[in-house]
Please model this.
Amino acid sequence: MSKQEDRDKHSSRLHADDTAIRKQVKIAKAHGIEIKEPHKLVKHHALDCGVPNCPMCSSPRKTYKQPTIQEKSFDQTKAWVDEGELDDALDKMARLSDEMGLGLYDEIDYIKKR
Ligand SMILES: [Zn+2]
Model:
């Protein structure tokens, strides 16, 4: 016998899958990709192939232990700023991110470690 709680969980699971499919179909449509089997988009995104550790679409940090494009960009920005100014700038950035409710702590820690 299924309880009301179980039925609610089941229907919210179905709804979450439908929403995920609709979202990925929309993304595919915007990129001009024809989708023949939309149900497959429950398990992978429209713009990647769905193969784990695929060299073309996975994070270079995970597959090759190389910095991502964003991390390279942080390193370039760091090179522009003097060391003394950097700590002040990072503290200011942390304060602003705190005020604005952005969770930039990982990024700020990453820059400080380099
Ligand atoms: Zn791929």
The chain has a mean pLDDT of 85.
